[in-house]
Design goal:
The complex is a heterodimer of chains A (518) and B (377).
Chain A (H helix, E strand, L loop, with lengths): L6 H7 L3 H29 L10 H36 L7 H19 L31 H28 L12 H32 L13 H35 L6 H14 L15 H13 L1 H15 L8 H24 L1 H7 L3 H31 L5 H27 L14 H30 L36
Chain B lengths: L2 H15 L19 H34 L15 H29 L7 E8 L2 E6 L4 E5 L3 H6 L7 H5 L11 E4 L4 E7 L4 E5 L4 E5 L5 E5 L5 E7 L12 E6 L1 H19 L8 H15 L1 H4 L23 H10 L13 H13 L11 H7 L1
Parallel strand pairs in B: 1-5, 4-10
Antiparallel strand pairs in B: 1-2, 2-3, 5-8, 6-7, 6-9, 9-10
Classes of the chains: A mainly alpha (518), B alpha+beta (377).
Amino acid sequence: MSDHPTGIKRWLFTTNHKDIGTMYLWFAFTMLFIGGAMAMVIRAELFQPGMQVVNPNFFNMMTTLHGLIMVFGAIMPAMVGFANWQVPLMIGAPDMALPRMNNWSFWILPFAAIMLVAPMFIGGDFMAGQGPAFGWTFYEPLSGQYDKLAFFIFAVHLLGFSSIMGSINIIATILNMRAPGMTLMKMPLFVWTWLITAFLLIAVMPVLAGVVTMMLTDKHFGTSFFDAAGGGDPVLFQHVFWFFGHPEVYIMILPAFGIVSQIIPTFARKPLFGYASMVYATAAIAFLSFIVWAHHMFTVGMPAAGELYFMYATVMIAVPTAVKVFNWVATMWKGSMTFEVPMLWSIAFVFLFTIGGFTGLMLGVVPVDFQYHDTYFVVAHFHYVLVTGSLFAIIAGVYYWLPKWTGHMFDIRLSKIHFWVSAISVNILFFPQHFLGLAGMPRRIPDYALQFTEFNQISSIGAFIFGGTQLLFLYIIIKCIKGGDKVSDEVWEDAKGLEWEVPSPAPYHTHATPPTVK
Amino acid sequence: MSASHITKKLAVLSGLLLAPGVALADYALNMTQGVTEISNDIYDLHQLVMWICTIAGILVFTVMIYSLINHRKSKGAVAAQFHESATVEVVWTVIPLAVLVAIAVPATGVLLDIEDPSKSDVTIQVTGWQWKWQYNYRDEDLSFFSSLAADSNEARQLDADPSLKVKADNYLLNVDKPIVVPVNKKVRLLLTSNDVIHAWWVPEFAVKRDAIPGYINESHFTATKTGIYRGQCAELCGKDHGFMPIVVKVVEQAEYNAWIKSEKAAIAAAAGDSNKTFTHDELMAKGETVYKANCAACHQADGSGGGPFPGLIGSKVATTGSIEEHLKLIIVGKGIMPPFGAQLSDADIAAVTTYERNAWGNNTGDTVQPVAAKAAR
């Protein structure tokens, strides 16, 4: 009866955007738990001063792999998963433009992930920490000291292939396969944010590939791009890395803006305020992301003129970001709001992402950055942006579209517990880290002076609660896939958009005949 | 309720919840004001930006919370259908821009002060090593290494007795040999590195500057109060990044002059050691100290090694291999092992070589004298 292959072949050979989207999301979820488990090791070691759980090298390996796995394994693939599922549904296309390449972009990922973590297990002494331990930013010359560097480099190359192919596919789909009548300025904002994100990815992933290739030839073929002793320049590494790394930050947050911009209007029962300005703000943020990279390296010893330029350009980002927050608030203003679970996560996103945005502005002011740089203040900042920003938006998106994907409503009582426990514990986890940083605790240290004890303990307790609660999320999703109350095609009262016009659950093939958009 | 009041309450509350035994509650909430003019300027700038953000946050969140309370369906709110206004968009683009200018103007002034290391009184070259700092007083021909204090180093081992941390003097923030600088004098720092990138950070001076191989970075501070100021490496530099603190003693000019004199005298006295002959037991005792301070971080105190760091128990280098090879390896390094030739004196190198060839059952019976180390250089 089935209109598609079954069993393992379905998943290996599938060219269906929904299957591939599902695989991306499960892959991201798996990596979220692996990276999360590493975060638990970090917080366990930092629960008290002194070394109790692992040695310093193993600790550095945990912070390194936690960062790499969360960025490249969890957040980015989850966003691509949403793009696969939702872009064709939302623009009225039958599938992605390049379905076979789509299959390949996904199936590269598990191998890249294996190559990234494999060095942990190569060699005789697991607890010595044999994997990469040079931080997710893999600064030279430290990373060049690592004997199994090639594993890391090829893992990054594979991730880059996957991202570039995925982005080409998304751009091709959005530009060529929109339903008749859907002009660019009628596209849902999620589609807009992904279109812009895909261009960012195509622009910067080759830069990342370039920098790791330079590392490879430095390590194995006798070049000296980054080796001062051979006439190279260690700071060049940082410029090239952050030319990739800063747009990368927006790659992780722009689709999150898109998701939240879909959810808030639905539950405020009011169209998104300032749609056009949202599009322009997204494009402005994307443009600015290319010209601010050196604000990650203010302590590197740039000339004062360079520092001033990067400070002015960086604080400018606050303007389009503020416009976005104002637009979300204006969308809620005089709406008729209800607080279903996706809306709860989106409201938490607006509150907490804004806090991360403020600390970002503070970090951009060069003289004070000399005190904040490489401390827990930075750790707190980017976790507010990436956990309560990107991850909260991802969770909001899962709750928003899961009923459409499965045809069932999730367990509302449990999902509200999931929300409230997460939203409170994530602040117990990350808010005290601001104080630790201001009091002078550097980041990436496995042990600390005694005056940092109390806030570290509070933070660790928050971490254990937040981490544990995500197991509930897993349970809620499995329960929802297996069964639950049937939902209507519209799912949410008066939800707007083409994805709510197809049946629930969304059939294997949708929009075989393009809908017409007025 | 004042901030300190809240802090105290929080301390009591979490003291009950968390760690009944630990009475070290600190709960510092804000940045240090520090002891230099620049650190005070930075503190003021930090307060300014933080309050601007706090007020902006309160404004936005108040509007949002008002809306969340009043514009809900359960209260019978009917959704308005307005969805754009060019005027509003322009207004809330221009206001943040104006606020940013208000931040950028003072920030520029402070930055230009920071980036002016001219007219300094004392110049110290700071070199980062994995994992210690080398200080070279450029005008005094005085150079020494500064590494984590022995009591902290013992207390931070994986299987150490937890009480050692409390007993240690300023756990993890103390060194064997601090640098000394005069008060109210402009101290210029020239920062570089011998291996990977480090960053020299003392919060009270608001100096944080990377030490990069192949580069000489400049920074400066003028401490206005005598005292002892502590900091840490702030750039991930490998395994023991968390264990290379910085201690600066700021003293009166006269005390500084006396210190320089006594340091120079000590160096002159030690110079004679290169030609001296020591007994086996003297070398073993000295060797153990040198080993613990320089080698144990990787090869472990019991010589067992681990991961990429080879064990020394029964290893070829430390037993059957020639003494000369052994000395060479210590002096010039190999792979990830740094060269110790510049950090250790001939007597230190001879002692640690003797120690490694006889400790942990290596029992070669070899005695290595400083002249051998001198010859191996």
